[in-house]
């Protein structure tokens, strides 16, 4: 079961929050509403309610708790994948058991976030899911002979918050730089630094990392005098 709209920069991704704790669910809703490009479309208090709302609301992203009063989150994940639903799933839970983490990964969850957490941690996971959905959408639109290795790598690797981030780079800042690049279309390191609030040297490190990871491209813009400017854009 696919989404009724393609994942694009021009619309917010719809998020369904699934948590039986009212106060926790409200916190997660507020976190989503504070994240540019995402909007909460509903909250489910049980596994059965989540499956019903998936059918009626057709969200892009599911924030799914493991411990629910009826079906647990892993069973919800299993049922929606068995039904062919390609919603992006972030497991949001206090459960740290290695078997549960393994089951979530093998069951088709894109991200796993341990409670409690701060807003930047959720932003990084939501952005990773957005990248995953975009990459998969690009594969869906491509003809059989048009899928190159870079496209495949993005589809498989986009679920990670960052691909082998070099030492000294953080996932939260990487997500902020990538989002600024996505919103502006094309930027220099100086423009990215101003948008995120960091030094030009640091911004360039993130931008060059995205180029090396296949998540962005760079071109040289020549002016009348001086060295050419490096301009970065999301692939």
The SS-based structural class is alpha/beta
Strand content: 15-25%
Q: Write out the strand line-up for the largest beta sheet, numbering strands in chain order.
A: 2-1-3-4-5
Task: Tell me the helix content.
Answer: 40-55%
Q: What's the CATH class label of the largest domain? A: Alpha Beta
Q: How confident overall, as mean pLDDT?
A: 83
Straight-line distance between termini: 27 Å
The biggest beta sheet reads: 5 strands, parallel
Shape: elongated
Enumerate how many helices there are, as a single number. 9
Give the C-alpha Rg.
19 Å
Helix and strand run: EHEHEHEHEHHHHHEE
The CATH topology assignment of the largest domain is Rossmann fold
Low-confidence stretches: 158-163
Count of domain modules: 2
Q: Report the count of strand segments.
A: 7
Concise description?
This protein is of the alpha/beta class and 235 residues long. Helix content is 47%, strand content 17%.
Q: Topology of this structure?
A:
Blueprint: E1 13-18, H1 22-33, E2 38-44, H2 47-57, E3 61-64, H3 73-82, E4 88-93, H4 98-107, E5 111-114, H5 119-141, H6 149-157, H7 171-184, H8 189-196, H9 200-212, E6 216-221, E7 229-234
Structural overview:
The protein is of the alpha/beta class and 235 residues long. It has 2 domains: 13-132, 3-Layer(aba) Sandwich (Rossmann fold); 163-234, Winged helix-like DNA-binding domain superfamily/Winged helix DNA-binding domain (Arc Repressor Mutant, subunit A). The chain is 47% helix and 17% strand. The chain has helices spanning 22-33, 47-57, 73-82, 98-107, 119-141, 149-157, 171-184, 189-196, 200-212; strands spanning 13-18, 38-44, 61-64, 88-93, 111-114, 216-221, 229-234. The strands form 2 sheets. It has a 5-stranded parallel beta sheet with strand order 2-1-3-4-5, with helices on both faces. The protein has a two-stranded antiparallel sheet with strand order 6-7. α3 links the parallel β3 (61-64) and β4. The protein is elongated, with a radius of gyration of 19 Å. 36% of the residues are buried.
């Amino acid at each position: 079961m696919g989404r009724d709209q393609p994942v694009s920069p021009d619309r917010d991704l719809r998020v369904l929050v699934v948590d039986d704790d009212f106060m926790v669910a409200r916190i997660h809703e507020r976190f989503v509403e504070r994240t540019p490009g995402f909007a909460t479309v509903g909250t489910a208090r049980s596994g059965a309610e989540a499956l019903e709302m998936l059918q009626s609301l057709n969200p892009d992203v599911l924030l799914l708790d493991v411990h629910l009063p009826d079906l647990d989150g892993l069973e919800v994940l299993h049922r929606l994948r068995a039904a062919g639903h390609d919603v992006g799933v972030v497991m949001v839970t206090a459960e740290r058991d290695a078997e549960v983490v393994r089951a979530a990964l093998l069951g088709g969850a894109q991200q796993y976030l341990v409670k409690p957490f701060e807003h930047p941690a959720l932003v990084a996971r939501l952005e990773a899911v957005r990248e995953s959905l975009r990459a998969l959408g690009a594969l869906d639109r491509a003809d059989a002979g048009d899928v190159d290795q870079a496209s495949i790598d993005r589809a498989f690797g986009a679920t990670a918050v960052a691909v082998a981030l070099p030492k000294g780079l953080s996932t939260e800042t990487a997500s902020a730089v990538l989002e600024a690049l996505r919103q502006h279309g094309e930027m220099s390191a100086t423009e990215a630094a101003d948008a995120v609030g960091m030094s030009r040297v640091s911004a360039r490190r993130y931008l060059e990392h995205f180029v090396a990871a296949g998540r962005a491209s760079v071109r040289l813009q020549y002016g009348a005098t001086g060295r050419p400017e490096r301009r970065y854009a999301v692939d």
